[in-house]
Amino acid sequence: MENQSDKRRFKRSRKEAPRKISVTFQNADGKADACEATLWDFSEGGLGMDSPRAFEAGDILGLDAELYGPAYNMGLVARARVAYCRRLDAKKYRVGVAFLEASYRRIVVED
Q1: What is the pTM of this model?
Q2: Given this model, what pLDDT does residue 106 score?
Q3: Residues 72/66, Cβ–Cβ less than 8 Å
């Protein structure tokens, strides 16, 4: 049986400390809503995050985050489609998304 990581087109990174992600979406009433999630892993094609709410596969989300690593410091603004959502515990869900559109901005870190 093929596992999910075998299906990935891009290598995922999970080496850095958790980062917060602002997530915007339309709720069941069609109104704009938002929550804050924690980055789990990311790649060129998408990311995994831990969210306080569940999403359905196919939901479209807006994402805004700052990502830091040994070779990069960047801000990310993206539109993404939910690929999967799994309950981790009573208050947290692991959500995987694929980017539909993404833009990056360089963040200058001064010592």
Answers
A1: 0.79
A2: 80
A3: no
